[in-house]
Amino acid sequence: MKKMITQVKQRKEKEVVAPSEKTLDFLKQFARVYHVEKSLPKEISGLCTN
């Protein structure tokens, strides 16, 4: 006797990945104090001033 096997395709719902509020707050604070000084060499041109 031949066995018939059927495959059930499950729909995979796309999981939405979002950063937490703490992460967003940290990035916003960092973005406010970051400054690029173009007169300095490229390696050290980014400064955090707070």
Task: Provide an overview of this structure.
- With 50 residues, the chain is α+β, with helices and mostly antiparallel strands.
- It has a domain at 20-50.
- It has one helix and two strands, in the order αββ.
- It has one helix at residues 21-33, and strands at 34-36, 46-48.
- The protein has a two-stranded antiparallel ribbon.
- It is elongated.
- The termini are far apart.
- The mean pLDDT is 78.
Q: What would the average pLDDT be, to the nearest integer?
A: 78
Strand content bin: 5-15%
Total DSSP helices: 1
Could you describe the largest sheet, including whether it forms a barrel?
A: 2 strands, antiparallel
Assign the structural class, choosing from mainly alpha, mainly beta, alpha/beta, alpha+beta, or little secondary structure: alpha+beta
Distinctive features:
single chain; 50 residues; alpha+beta; two-stranded antiparallel ribbon; 1 helix; 2 strands; 12% strand; elongated
Spell out the blueprint of helices and strands:
Elements: H1 21-33, E1 34-36, E2 46-48
Antiparallel strand pairs: 1-2
Compact summary:
This protein is α+β, with helices and mostly antiparallel strands and 50 residues long.
